[in-house]
Every structure is written in structure tokens, then in C-alpha cells.
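Sample A.
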Amino acid sequence: MNKPYIATYVYKKPRETCTFYVSRETEELTNSAQREVGRRLGERVSDLTFWRNELAAELEKMIQETSLLHDSRRLLEKGLQDLEAPLHIAQECLYHRENRTGKE
């Protein structure tokens, strides 16, 4: 890569030559800056793509875990309902036992 021309080296030349070198230096500096900005933007796009994919993977894991938790909750609620009848019977038996008069 050529180094950009520095305007101080061309001050002794005629006006047209000086203008040419200054415009050439400005163009080279502009192109160099644009390449650097393009490279940085490319890195940023790569970083954003990586993190978007990471978030999508984590979201999928959370959705699966939430689904498993819902299934577990449903099973536990069903188990609780299944135990209500035997609990009621056991409580009723205890109530009747306490109200008996006499010894067993």
C-alpha cells in the first residue's frame, strides 16, 4: 500500500501540481478510512449474527424447559386431585373414630 502524499512535500511545485497531490492525498486518505469503516462494519455484523444465533438457541432451550415444567405441573395437579377422595375418606374415618363413645 502506498503511503499517502503529504502536502508539505509539494509546496515548492507549481499550483496545479500541488492541487493534484493534495487531491490525491485526500482521495487516498478517504479510501483508507472507508476500507477501515467497512472492515469494522463487517466485524460488527458478524458479532451481531453470532449473538442473535446464541439468543435463538437459548430461547429454544427455555421454550423446551417451560414445556416440560407445564407437563410436570399438570401431572402434579392431577395427582393432587386423585388424592382428594382418599384424604376425605381418611378424615371422615378419623372424625367418626374420635366421636365413638366407648373403648375399642
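Sample B.
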Amino acid sequence: MENDRSQHLERAAEILRAASEPTRLELLFELRAGERSVTELSQDRSFSAVSQRLRVLRAAGLVVRRREGKRQLYALRDRALVRLLESLLRHASELS
């Protein structure tokens, strides 16, 4: 039981580390609206920087990728992450 808890806490810490960089967090917020291509997410940013940050988020299990022709489309892995992000934003605004 304690080992399970330790594993879950470590996994939670991995998720928080992946989301802790401001641009990665911003990408997660943009994906709340649904699936987006790298090109769409790169409109105001470097394409390569966005791709690299999406790789980190994907490796952490926060986003999923699918191919549609030559396009790579990204989406949040599940709706629970949307609720977590919205709660985090509310909390941050209350602290400001």
C-alpha cells in the first residue's frame, strides 16, 4: 500500500514537472479546446520550440498525438487534465 502511494506521488511529481514550464503549460491550456496541429499551436511561437515542448508533454503522458496525412495532431490525454488545469488557473488568480 505504501509502495503504491510512493509510486503515485512520484508519477504526480513527474506530471507537475512536465507542466511546470510556462510555454508547456500554455500549450496544455490551448489544447483544452480540443485537438490542434503543431502548425496551429506555433502561430506565435517557433515551430521547433513547440514541437520540442509537445514531445516532453507526450513523454509525460499528458498529451496524445495522431497523424492525419502529413499533419501531427495533439490533444490532451483525458478530460481530468482539463479540470485540473482549470482548477489551477482559478487558484492562481485567487492568489494574485
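B remarks: The chain has a mean pLDDT of 92. The two ends are 38 Å apart (CA to CA).
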